[in-house]
Fold:
Amino acid sequence: QVQLQESGGGLVQPGTSLRLSCVSSVSIDSRYSMAWYRQTPGKERELIALISYDDNTDYAASVRGRFTASRDAAKNSLYLQMNDLKPEDTAVYSCYTRGTWGQGTQVTVSS
Structure:
């Protein structure tokens, strides 16, 4: 059974950066696609970054050019580098793979 644990969230000011991590209990090698989602209260979960099985990446328009997703299969880890954060990026961020979501990490962007 896959278990995912995110970390790296926090309270930051607009324009700054954060790097989220997601550690998997099982292999996350390139056979598996992985994704980052985010959710705010009252809204549906939003897919913001996808790493496909061949390591191609795709991003939601709202984060493209600011966020970068990557994986380190040797560490069973997925990362989300978030730059130039905006208040509208405030959300709970979760990673996803093989049918499983992590519990999420809160990111709050506020001055």
